[in-house]
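Before going further, learn to read the protein records used in this course. Taken together, the tokens spell out the fold as the letters spell out the chain. A record is reproduced here so that you can trace the correspondence yourselves:

***
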Amino acid sequence: MVAPAATCADEEVGRWKVTTTPSQRLNDVDLAVVGGLVQHISEDPSAAATTWRAEVRWSGGFRSVARVRDLPPVASDEPPALGGTNTAPNPVEQVLGALGNCLAVGYAANASAAGIAMHDLRIELEGDIDLRASALHPTTSLAGGSGSSPRRRNRISSAPATLLEGDEAPYRTPRG
């Protein structure tokens, strides 16, 4: 069902300022905003490259809290079987949820742009993890490939730098 939007608003989206005006909506997607974004990117392809940020702070044990934009914090913990206190989804569950959310956004955007009304969408994801790539196997390297390097890392250990850096370091992080 296509319905008119009720209000006007200005919103920061990535590096763009988008002004929404009363427009048509399908699947609760503002078609004017999506159309404007598509047009902007087609006119300036470099605008498609965006950067998103998060800050994660360790809270003790296997708990941490992620802060993104001005949204409420997102907690993370492990289940008791993995040494946690089960107060929040673990990071793997959060990655699966993030992937599912990303897919849902893509389906909603593409269906709406094509004029297709969605009545229900459910995405079930499952992932396997080898626990040897965690603290349970200290010789495993956690170095990522191209594009997975964190932009900034903070030293959090009193261990000598020679143990924290270099090719033979346990839990080394990608150099960048």
Residues 91-113 form the longest helix (23 residues). The chain has three helices and eight strands. The radius of gyration is 21 Å. The longest strand covers residues 55-60.
